[in-house]
Task: structure prediction
Amino acid sequence: MNREAISLSIAIPSLLNNVDVVSVCIEESLKNYLDDEQLYWVSFALREIVVNAIVHGNLSDEKKPVVVEMSFENDTLEFCVKDKGRGFLEKDLICHEKFIEKLDYERGLGNVLVKKLMDSIECRKERNWFVVKLLKRLGGKK
Ligand SMILES: Nc1ncnc2c1ncn2[C@@H]1O[C@H](COP(=O)(O)OP(=O)(O)O)[C@@H](O)[C@H]1O
Ligand SMILES: [Mg+2]
Result:
């Protein structure tokens, strides 16, 4: 059965306190469609990417926005997280995953976990934004 499409866009100043604001909005919008476990892991993955956008992308400069766009249509959940920073290369994601045993488990695990939790993670420069796009196909609430 096709659910109604949902879409949402949130812009926050680059302060870590605002990560909770994003989680609450996303969880509220999806809670009728995903089960608790799906919601937990999707929200976990998104938080990692939003924290990265704030800290690594915008260097916690609260004058710079982070934008989170969500769409959920035909069982495919998509997030685009945009920041104003220089970004990083997609190949660095693979590099981190390959050398996971060398990581110190305090830094560098976020993207690896997100890659495991979501079906895909892609990064690109788009005009004056750095964009991380996450995709996940979900069966929906049982
Ligand atoms: N939005 C971003 N802009 C610039 N660099 C980023 C961004 N997200 C991640 N990175 C880079 O990728 C690295 C790995 O990110 P992550 O796996 O979350 O580890 P951590 O945040 O613990 O360093 C970061 O240390 C940073 O160098
Ligand atoms: Mg991180």
In short: The chain has one domain: 6-137. The radius of gyration is 15 Å. DSSP finds four helices and five strands in the chain.
